[in-house]
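Appendix B. Worked example

We walk through a single record from start to finish. Start with the input: the chain for Succinate-semialdehyde dehydrogenase, Thermothelomyces thermophilus, length 495.
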Amino acid sequence: MAPKLRDPSLFKQDVCYVNGEWVKARSAKTFEVHDPATGQLIGTCPEFDAQDTEKAIAAAAAAFEEFRHKTGRERSKLLRKWYDLVVENADDLATLISWENGKPTADAKGEVTYAANFFEWFSEEAPRIYGDTIPSSVPGNRVFTIKEPVGVCGLITPWNFPAAMITRKVGPALAVGCTVVCKAPGETPYTPLALAELAHRAGIPKGVVNVITALGNTPEVGEVLTTNPTVRKVSFTGSTPVGKLLMKQCSGTLKKLSLELGGNAPFIVFDDADVDQAVAGAVASKFRSSGQTCVCANRIFVQRGIYDEFATKFAAKVATFSVGNPFDTGVTHGPLIHSRAIDKVEQHVRDAQQKGARVLLGGHRLPDLGANFYQPTVLVDMTTDMAMASEETFGPVAGLFPFDTEEEVVRIANSTPVGLAGYFFSRDLERVHRVAEHLEVGMVGVNTGLISDPAAPFGGVKESGFGREGSMYGIGEYQVTKMVTYGGMGKKLQS
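Next comes the structure step. The output line below is what the pipeline stores for this chain.
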């Protein structure tokens, strides 16, 4: 049976939110959305095309002319109202996330809280947008800067955090006075559409927030967002190959870009670490959302002196997981998003086995639960020639690599073209600073497996992209700096 919402009007079928109204696709075409746990049809959504997207951009452009002139305090109050409505409807939003994404209820509720907090954070930043006064090198000149909104923003978000990835981008955009066109993920469109309904109830002016959907037409919609000259900023969270394509498409109009792309996070446990603390951190980092996050531990390196102890305790903890339908009581881990995700996980496990790895726990699909379920898996005796060493698994499989020295593990950790997040556990203060500085990543977790926080800047280096989301730095991604030089100010006062 389909889950029930306390407020059924939050479930929006066959319509997108454009210019303050709920509209169908021009072609009337739709695509289907399926429950990853059961395979059953959830509903249908509009298959927007290029012309539909152009209309949404035009609506955002028209709204920008007025919205940009609202005071920071006015924008703050709108974001705060939206935040309050998200909190009031948290249970329904969590239900939608579990239904279309497969996250267990507790995990989904955690995402809603995380998502809401971005609105709260940026509602507090909106009134505090400051320029600078700069001493001029020319006598009689005065120089100051103004921070202005960049303009219409195209936001393209992924399926793994259908609420939080929307709010992490929309929050700062609205805080500074931008308007947005959000391309919701085709796998999980109903959570973003519910957020659009709450934006409407919060009194966000028409055209300021537009949420559109597409599945088969996603490349077409993405090309419009990246090539239309009215769009001055594109923010994308997703894979590195797609990010490179979007960046290339944006080059024709030199848009401002934020790209949060793929990762291959090293998780390092030194022999001076608290093993129990490291096990807890590794479980939290690796198996959150069944391993389907860009900052998941993808390569777990354990120093040989504690390798066996760590592996035994880690596998014992993973063995306590309960896999099943996300709405069932006691379930800790749900399905993967679709069959392609299952196939990749299985390929990585088989590749590792063929090259000498041992399966300590799991290693199989769970067809009795459904087509998209995979057993939480722990592999030991991993080596760097295995696919998991160089490819992002994005699933509930943990591979443990032994290492001997600090220099060796840092070199291996950095031997990848991406650099999003990295983690390590150590009680040696000198090592903490040394390794944190040498890891080639945008974010480092020391003695913790969870680093996401609205107050902390989120983003990577190398082919994991550029730009930062969240925090005091995230708001600048949606601004441009205008310099003003005021001349003729050097005359003496007359008596």
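Two observations about the output. The chain has two domains: 8-261+464-482, 266-446. The chain has 15 helices and 22 strands.
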